[in-house]
Design goal:
By secondary structure, the protein is α+β, with helices and mostly antiparallel strands. It has 11 helices and 24 strands.
């Protein structure tokens, strides 16, 4: 508990007030910030040359091309290795299309995402329908018939997000039909077409727009986390809950303003740091707002998105991702003394009666109903998508869904709150690091939103006051223009 302020040293509070400006980097200046597309033929060397030599100031790349081969279930592709290597070497973010499939013309199931869309570092994008014509197969806001499905190798979630890329179908004669999204022709006129090649640039543009609004150093993890954190499922989505991430990832991201600004009834905290092997982050005085206490129990909704850069090793096949990061958030009774002479005990202060409220088993399936409001439809069902070695994890919980016994145990007004992160490494990564005397670590970005579902309490001010009372080092994320949404 003594080093809490140090641990939160790179945390930001996404705010609604006027921001204090600081000097921009070249990648934030609108006059020089660009997104760039790569056209086939593709070679790793040509991509590296483009990034390193020809477009040094470009940090966000749109890659609307694919190797026309579906991914394998238990191994990653050479193109994925190449894309990950380029992003690590040059610190860029690649927005990659999931790929297109024509199986819908013959009534066959969709194929898996194409090779390259299994890139761990890339933000992979699928397509949903913006409109529907007579013979189109998809309903509005549902996956486009041509948009290839996940998951990626070893069941990692790919694509992560979707955007509008058109609709398609077949007429009674079996001929393909399409309802395209608007684009620009080579001659500069307006035309329409379909494909994940048209949904992906929308996400690249969104990432660029967010970066232009930020007065922070370029950080691909932060951009990726902000986009995924904002993504939601449409109320029109008619895919079974257990198949949603395969087809639309975490959903459709919100607009720039909705990504960067909170209402007064919620707050979003961003913890962006690096965690070394053998270390953990254990925040034992998390400032849970007491204004959310009603009848001696806490209420509220929590959305947590964790994006991290796992250690990668191309020689390990399906175990390409060599490290994992877990997050726990919840409450406990009181602080207790611990025996640090034991090899696994690092913190002399422990938590008695701790309960991780991001654990799906604590929630009642009976209470979570698909027709139980917007949060049920768009957010909280994703608590299950947080398995080991997923490079992107997202949790969304509503405390009202806890079982009665867990509610009594964990939400009493006198409970304390904690946030805990710890890394895990595969044996191969640890043995290799020991031989080479390397220090293992991984960068991560954790975004947490705490919300009053009743829209009554000023959660933003309450948490900010709690941060100050507990001596957390924090500041509003730097936004150009200093827009103030609350006069």
């Amino acid at each position: 508990a003594a080093n809490v302020s140090k641990v939160f040293g790179r945390a930001f509070v996404r705010g609604h007030g006027e921001s204090v400006r600081r000097e921009k980097t070249i990648f934030c200046q609108k006059s020089s910030f660009r997104t760039t597309s790569i056209s086939p033929p593709f070679r790793k060397r040509s991509l590296r040359e483009a990034v390193k030599l020809h477009y040094k100031d470009v940090k966000i790349w749109n890659l609307s091309l694919s190797v026309s081969r579906p991914i394998k279930k238990n191994s990653f592709s050479d193109l994925a290795f190449a894309l990950d290597s380029v992003q690590d070497e040059f610190g860029v973010l690649i927005c990659k299309s999931a790929g297109n499939c024509t199986n819908f013309i013959n009534g066959k199931p969709k194929g898996r995402i194409f090779q390259g869309a299994d890139s761990v570092r890339s933000l992979v994008v699928g397509s949903i329908a913006h409109d529907r014509s007579q013979h189109d197969s998809a309903e509005i806001d549902n996956p486009s018939p041509f948009s290839r499905r996940g998951p990626g190798p070893e069941y990692i979630i790919k694509p992560e997000v979707v955007h509008y890329g058109g609709n398609a179908g077949a007429n009674p004669q079996g001929q393909p039909t399409q309802t395209g999204v608007k684009s620009l022709s080579v001659a500069g006129g307006i035309c329409t077409s379909i494909g994940t090649s048209f949904s992906t640039p929308r996400i690249a543009s969104l990432a660029a727009g967010i970066q232009q609004e930020l007065e922070e150093d370029f950080n691909p993890l932060l951009l990726k986390a902000l986009i995924v954190h904002s993504a939601t499922y449409s109320s029109k989505l008619n895919i079974p809950n257990e198949e949603r991430t395969d087809h639309v990832g975490f959903g459709l991201p919100k607009t720039i303003n909705n990504i960067l600004y909170n209402s007064q009834h919620e707050i979003t905290l961003i913890l962006n740091d690096s965690l070394a092997r053998g270390e953990s982050i254990d925040i034992m005085d998390f400032p849970m707002p007491k204004c959310l206490i009603t009848n001696n129990f806490y209420r509220g909704q929590v959305i947590a998105t964790l994006v991290y850069n796992p250690i990668l090793d191309v020689s390990q096949g399906g175990e390409y991702c060599q490290s994992n990061l877990d997050v726990k958030f919840g409450s406990y009774d009181y602080k207790s003394d611990r025996d640090t002479s034991r090899p696994t005990i690092l913190n002399p202060v422990g938590r008695a009666g701790a309960m991780n409220l991001l654990n799906q088993s604590h929630y009642s399936k009976r209470k979570i109903k698909p027709d139980d409001g917007d949060f049920a439809l768009m957010e909280r069902l994703r608590i299950q998508y947080a398995d080991k070695y997923y490079p992107v994890k997202k949790y969304a919980v509503d405390f009202s869904d806890l079982t009665n016994s867990k509610r009594v145990q964990s939400l009493a007004a006198d409970r304390k709150w904690f946030l805990f992160l710890r890394g895990l490494y595969r044996n191969h990564a640890e043995q290799k690091a020991d031989r080479q005397r390397d220090a293992l670590s991984k960068d991560f970005c954790l975004i947490m939103t705490i919300r009053d579902p009743l829209l009554k309490e000023n959660v933003y001010d309450a948490v900010t006051q709690g941060l100050e009372a507990n001596n957390f080092w924090h500041n509003n994320i730097q936004i150009s223009g200093g827009i103030n949404l609350f006069p």
